[in-house]
Amino acid sequence: MKTAEEKKYNRIITILSIVLPLAIAALFGVKIEMELPVFLPPIYASTNAITAVVLVIAVIAIKKGNKQLHERLIKTAMLLSILFLVLYVLYHMTSNSTAYEGSQKGVYFFILISHIMLSIAVIPFVLITYVRAKLGKFEQHKKIAKYTFPLWLYVAISGVVVYLMISPYYLV
Question: Does residue 103 sit in helix, strand or coil?
Fold first, then answer.
């Protein structure tokens, strides 16, 4: 039986899991005529790389029984993911898309599309996993974390790979 608090969190998770991808998609249609003081792709790719490292260290921490460190690292990974998202959207609102011109188009588009699809799918997984821990439902937390961790790690790493593959084609 779910508590009122759990039901409240589930409603929030459902709303965020729907609204975030729709809002991001809508923002891609918005173009702001301004030049940013920095070139964002290497910065947001770095946030993905750091997120991947933080996630791995978080898993190591919990396997060693360090719940406090694990919690802080997961919160850090969540903040890094939010930062990535803000920078990514900001870049695409102020810059034209870059076309991939390499010989590995099939590989590039497979990684890009799987990255995009899983970045949408991972939102409810991360939120549910976090809420279960927050509510002290650690057995349920562990059950979903088995799926959340590899999904989130793939999204973080594939984001870096996409950046590395397309970076030679950016017009800076």
Answer: coil
Q: What angle do CA 91, 96, 101 make, to 5 degrees?
A: 110
**4 CB-contact burial (10 Å; exposed 0-12 / middle 13-18 / buried 19+):** exposed
**Residues of the chain by 3-state class (helix, strand, coil), percent to 5:** 80, 0, 20
Q: How far is CA 27 from the centre of its chain?
A: 17
Cβ burial 85-104 (10 Å sphere, 16+ → b, else e): bebbbbbbeebeeeebeeee
* Residue 71 and residue 49 in contact, taking contact as beta carbons nearer than 8 Å: no
**172 residues of the chain, pLDDT tens digit each:** 788 999 999 999 999 999 999 999 998 888 898 888 889 999 999 999 999 999 999 999 999 999 999 999 999 999 999 999 999 999 989 988 899 999 999 999 999 999 999 999 999 999 999 999 999 999 999 999 999 999 999 999 999 999 999 999 987 5
Tokens linked to 85: 């998202």
The model carries a pTM of 0.92
Tokens of 11: 């409603």
Nearest Cα to Cα of residue 57 among 84, 35, 75: 75
